[in-house]
Amino acid sequence: MERTIQKRLSVGGDSWVTVDVYGEPDAPGLVVVPGVMSDAHTWRRVAGTIDAWPSVVVVNRRGRASSGPLTNSYSLQTEVDDLGVVLDEFDSTRALFGWSYGGLITLLAANDRPIPQVIAYEPVMQPFGRHALPDLKTAEETADWDRCVEIVNRQISGFSAAHVEDLRADQHGWAILRRLSGPLYAELGALNAAPPPDVMARQADQVDLIIGQCNRGTAPYGTSFDHVRQHVAHAGVHELPGQGHLAHIQAPAELGHLLNNLAAI
């Protein structure tokens, strides 16, 4: 599926979000909500493989070019409200898909309004990465974006120093990671600021949670996934073989194929 349009939507408070639309803009579709260290462009290869819905709308959440600023009042509820604006614009949406922090946003959005289907890949919830907040705050205050990328990979995701050096060796890729780390401290702070409701996705007709095989039962993503699962009473659980948290980068076709298979009939 090819991208057909990009649209800018005002979300109030002097900010806005852009969305990339693939397929038929006015047809029922899937809305994709990326997580931290990610943007709409990062999800283009996954969106391009999806054909179970006539359209795919990928949200470029605030804090990323070419969307607007987080603003001083930013919170997790801000993200849910922004997604509500997108859903009002694309009112024939049939399903939501969120990755990581985006997965939490979609599950919470389905408490506020009826959604036929919610799919979430390794959604995270508090406490997640809370221990890294002081170091991220210092890095943000000094605009040390290299340090931010190191913190998210080493202290939060648990990758090795060698992995970080491999990332750094790709100058273009590292520059993208530095840019995407700008809103990281605020986003992680928002994730940890408010306790989640006892039940999530209350108004979703169908909920499907996906975990990468490599993260089953392991911290931080597998354990946070298990925590989320306790708050979603009616979810089906699915596993993506051979993958971890970054399936949209490392196996976009496989992830897209799984999403096609999960499309509600």
Automatic annotation (TrEMBL):
Keyword field: Hydrolase
Keyword match Mitochondrion: no
GO molecular function: hydrolase activity
Domain AB hydrolase-1: 30-255
Keyword Acetylation in annotation: no
Coiled-coil stretches noted in the UniProt entry, renumbered to this chain: none
SUPFAM superfamilies named in the record: alpha/beta-Hydrolases
Protein name: Hydrolase
Species, as recorded: Streptomyces filipinensis
Species lineage: Bacteria, Bacillati, Actinomycetota, Actinomycetes, Kitasatosporales
